Amino acid sequence: MSGPPPGISVQGLTKTYKNIPAVSNLSFAVPPGSITGFLGPNGSGKTTTLRMLLGLVRPTAGLALIDGVPHASLQQPGQVVGAVLDAQGAHPKHTALTHLEVYCAAMRVPLTQARAMLDLVGLGSVATRRTGEFSLGMRQRLALATALLGQPRYLVLDEPANGLDPEGMAWLREFLLSYARSGGTVLVSSHILREVEQMADHLVIVSNGTLVHQGTTADLRNAYRARVLVACSDPARLAAALAAAGITDAQIQGDGRLAVAGAEPERIAALATEQKVTVFGTHIEHVDLEQVFLSMTSGRYAATTGYPQQGPPPPGFVQPGYAPQQQYPPQHQHPPQQYPQSQQYQQAGYAPQQYPPGAPAPHQPPFGPGGFQR
Ligand SMILES: Nc1ncnc2c1ncn2[C@@H]1O[C@H](COP(=O)(O)OP(=O)(O)OP(=O)(O)O)[C@@H](O)[C@H]1O
Questions:
Q1: What residue owns the CA closest to ligand 1's atom 25?
Q2: ipTM of the complex
Q3: How far is CA 41 from the centre of its chain?
Q4: Same domain, residue pair 113 and 97
Q5: Given ligand 1 and candidates 14, 47, 210, which is best to mutate, with the most ligand atoms within 8 Å of its CB?
Q6: Tell me, what CATH number does 49's domain have?
Q7: Does 184 share its domain with 326?
Q8: Co-location of 165 and 249 in the same domain
Q9: What separation in Å is there between the alpha carbon of 46 and the centre of ligand 1?
Q10: Which of 10-24, 63-77, 156-170, 297-311 has the weakest average pLDDT?
């Protein structure tokens, strides 16, 4: 018999408080080995969802499964899933070491794990200090150390970046990347896309308790990749030449410029030269994913009439209320200014796309050699 499907799976999850829906028919999956960013503005139902997943809130309807079973059915939950829901859990008069040792005893894991986990999260030097003296960032690290005591396969973190300075954020990012590389699965919530964008390979975006997007981070980036705005003597002719060369995402804008996605300015210029189309200037337009996220979750998204006008919806879009075509948020609209053909443009230099790099790992992995063993 095959075992339960691995990963986290949320199916039709619903929680209503006195007729007020906190989470409505929410379904998403967290693939094993992924870092999945769980995003949504304040009050969008993230914490309620995570609490249902961890068996702390009873769903009104639906299922939240870890390794195919509800949390309550896990044999040794602390060794399957570690959670950080809030960083305030430690007794202020307890030292960090005592705090963890109490948990070790409760979870029946060796007391030596307490010291090992403090070292792992960078709190080794303050192990005997009272947690009441800890900053919020230190408490976040302590909460993470607590979650890791049972060497879980899953980590569920609710806004772990709260209270972390940029250095703490960078540390957390590297830590979670390392955890995932060693086979762990992470579900991490945030209301700021930028906080998780560099580490999450999957994104689940909620608004008002409902799903608005799920998919890979790469797909979202590709859906909103940079485009080149070309001012030229014959945009229609250039668009036809681009299409013949396999570059089909080119649209004439209201201002007369041709907006091209999926080709670099040099390639566009070469095709224009072949077709005897004069290029007056090009401009690379980058998209800030944070703006896309804000537009998705604020409900303004459907009201925009931006780029591109046609084409498939971005991968992962699930909300039928959203416009069926992929669109840029209002911040990326161009003014309705006309660019007459005779107008001269300054040639804008090509700026390479500045998406954050993938997943550098310049640090010691917490698991495997040098770290703790699964
Ligand atoms: N115990 C509760 N009783 C009544 N309403 C609740 C309760 N818990 C949450 N809610 C409501 O459910 C909605 C979702 O809240 P939730 O805390 O899950 O959102 P969130 O996305 O985690 O937001 P935040 O990041 O601000 O914590 C909110 O409107 C909130 O007021």
A1: 42
A2: 0.95
A3: 13
A4: yes
A5: 47
A6: 3.40.50.300
A7: no
A8: no
A9: 8
A10: 297-311
